[in-house]
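the two lines:
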Amino acid sequence: MSKENQSKKVPSDFLLIFCILSLLCIGVIMVFSASIYTSAVKYNGDQYFLFKKQLLFAGVGLIVMMVVSKINYKIYHRYHKIILAISILLLIAVLFVGQELNGARRWFSLGGLSLQPSEIAKYGVVIFCAATLSSMKDQVRSFRKGLLPYLILIGVVSGLIYKQPNLSTALIIAVIVIGMVFVAGGNLGYIMGLGGGLVGAALYAMLFIGWRKDRVESFFDPSANITGSGWQARQSLLALGSGGIFGQGLGNGKQKMFYLPEPQNDFIFAHIGEELGLIGTLLILALFLLLIWRGLRISLYAPDTFSSLLSFGVVLMVGLQVLINVCVVTQIIPVTGIPLPFISAGGSSLLFLMGGMGILLNISKSTPINRR
Amino acid sequence: MSIYHLRRKKRLVFAFFVFFIFFIVMAIRLTYIQAFDSIKLTDEQIDQLMGEIPITATRGDIYDRNMNILAKDASASRIYVRPRDLENAEEVADYLSKILDLDRDILYEKISDTSQWIALVERKVDNDIAFEIRDQNFKGVEISEDKKRYYTNGNFASYILGFTGTDHQGLYGIESVFNNVLSGEDGVLVYEKDGKSQKVPSGYQVRIEPEDGDNLALTTDSVIQHFLESQVEKTVNDLDAKRVIAIAMDPKTGDILGMSSKPDYNLNDPRTISEIFETKLSDELKDKNLGEKQLAMWRNPAVTLNYEPGSTFKVVTASAVLEEGVVTPETPFFDKGYINIAGAQIKCHLYPRSHGAQTFVEGVQHSCNPVMVEAIQRLDPDEFYKYIYNFGFGDKTGIQLDGEQSGIVPANVEQNLINYVTKSFGQGISVTPIQLITALSAVVNDGKYMQPNIVKYILSSDSNEIIQEYKPHQIRQVISEDTASILQDTMEKVISESDVLSKIAEKYRVGGKTGTAQKVIDGKYAQGIYITSFFGFAPVEDPKVAVLFIIDEPKGYNVTGSNTAAPAALEFINSTLDYLDVPNNDKENFGDSSIVPDLRSQDMTLAQEVLGYLNLKYEVTSDIKEGYIVNQDPMPGQLIDKDTVIKLTLDKEAIDTSTELVSVPNIMDMTVQQANEVLRRLGLELTVTGAGGVSTKQSPLAGELVKKGTKVIVEFKPIE
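prediction for all of em together
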């Protein structure tokens, strides 16, 4: 913390930037090949529509990352309460004035750009946790200081997101909070109890509530729900399987022709598997693992506890999304709509993600050279 | 470094370790799917990508013997809907249900079911209707190629041809029996389809062409078929019969020249039951649902009707007894009007009069029951049954038509005598029309029983080259040429020695045999309900055509084969032989007689047409010159010279039968019982005068119009 002056001369983490840029490039190319068939139908014959959009957001995202990497991370510590408060207010607001889509209110529509309050909430929670946990020492092991406030945080934020409804994001938030308490040195007994409770709550929500129940049932018996989520999961496997080891070649995928749901979005990993094969999918997994490793390394050598916890939170957020997305696509878990970071077509979510990377880069620049 | 920092760092490393484990799991799972399961999943994907559209093969044409077209395929359309692409299912359902005449609610349910990518709405839609649908430019409504069967003339030869079902498969008649020949092999268009079942524009496409079905040429002659049908139609109307069935055959080859039964149905609209069919066959159709009624309508009576043939069967009996030598043509018989068998009395149709002394062939010619009964008793039943079976009764003839019945020949076990002897005049045995004409044609054909045949050739689809020919096939010689010749002479006399029939048949030498049988209804002989029939052939010296007319329940009093079926059959024979350019007997000077048609209740315009067609003169005697005919002179059924002027009385309105006016029948030469029966059927009452016996006088006179319930006074006198 005392070597701030030196940090300005430290170059950013090269490997991390390499991962981000590689994933972004793959994303733009694969969104192009995934959407070329459906865009021609959906957007009045403009088969480049989603490609152009993705290219634009990737460019803007890079600018966002560079800008954010210049912002000193300590500013987040100062405003952590306000940021959380705004997040919660937005989550409340979206329940009333959000765009309704398929019975869910998750979005604000801001002149062509859609904004998901849950994206902001993720950062709000990460920053709040990092700020509060970093100032505790042994108190983090106590129930009153180290557990109760975070239980309440999960209850409020995840509860609101669950209301939208968006179970998978609510779970991600809860896991982030628990993960941060864990890394901050929380009581293992409490954490394990909390984790157990979370698994129980998730199972309850999946097994006994309406459409989620259908998805879970179709997960175990895909033939029972041929046109719904069973169909989606099946099409995802067909895409991966028909790709084989070397893939059918870029642009040659068949599943993108209205077989895969959202081939440029939640199921883009299956689409990549079809066109680029096992080699392509393993390469992407390797890039993500490298990114997580570089991220955790920044957290490990961060200049202070706050920045360490903050960078861990960001990495955990990205890593969890990768895990859930790939597990859905490979039918390890039931279908749920989480995009693949950097690669799936997306607007505001990509910008937030790039912002998160900016924070990481800023922290890595602040890390003293002898510690890296 | 503080303990907290150390702990945090340890836990960060642990977190990475957890991530690492998860990534390994995902990598293993991916390897499993993409390396080990790849072939299976790729196969499944290929299956799913393949779209197939069947291309219906063009069904073979059906021709008559002169290659006139009878049935042909034409291009039509199939209408599909993609429920998920519809913008307004309500509107589309309204429009399609109206233009395609479908049930709107069922259609709406089908096209609004978005769990289906594609729904077939209707096949075999006429192209002009399909174009109209296409011009509406509904999104999600698609049209593809199909075939539809057209029959050149809806009702023409309907029982021969049959029709096809929704999948273009033959369902009845020739269409069904020769389905394998006609149907060909459907082709298929295999194409790459996307997840919405739409064809991928740049995708692969393989077309396997259909193999068209072969053509058929029938043995029927459309001109002869036309003569037959119009005569059948006329007979149904004239006699107000329930049904008339007729078959024309070339007796030397067994080829069917024509076959008709009316009322019938329209091949281009085979599922609609015509009103006339419904009324005529109301007895059989009541309490039946539409499906059962349709089945009844589609059944071809010419091969499916089992009926008691009556006197036409005497030719078979005579064949047997003559061939076996138990009688000779000249064997003398004496008919006293009846014969007692095992305590029962079998009457001659002349009873209470009689034929008196006659030879055997005269007995046959006069259709005398007692003679037949006597003759058959001289024959061993086993021998008689041999002839019954050799003439093809009790078994299917094997004609290439569907649903054929075998008739009913009760087993030759020890039966009581009465049941045996009645078979000699065609009672207690049931035959089908096709069995009877084939059997009697064998007599005409010098005793050679020919396989009845309705298909002449199978022709190749492209060039009409003969692939297979159905040649005339003699099955057996049933009786000797000599016996056959005796019976041909006898049958010729049936016509030539009848005043009425010989006049109709004067142009050619015609032979024939009439039949009048009481109908069996619910296992009993129904009083006053008859099946009359006539078998005829001509010319006797070199038979070109044999014909069987069967009239089911002709209305009127004293209906017999000779006053109902025979005139119709003879008219048909005349037209047919003219058409076949058979040299005639040059009796044209005597050819100027005709039977008076029934014009009563007819519209004057129609009557003029009919009279014009028959070349008859007429005059209107009433003041009213337009409207309906209420009376005519002479009355229908009378034989007149061509020069006779038919006087017609007209009125503005037709006599409605419900006004309860009936025409008094002729009740001469009847017993009290018979007269009572005839009058009661018309709703008239009988008042008996005289000493009993047969009727000699009546009042009012025959032909007068009286109200129902009027008393008719009849005087009866004993026969001298």
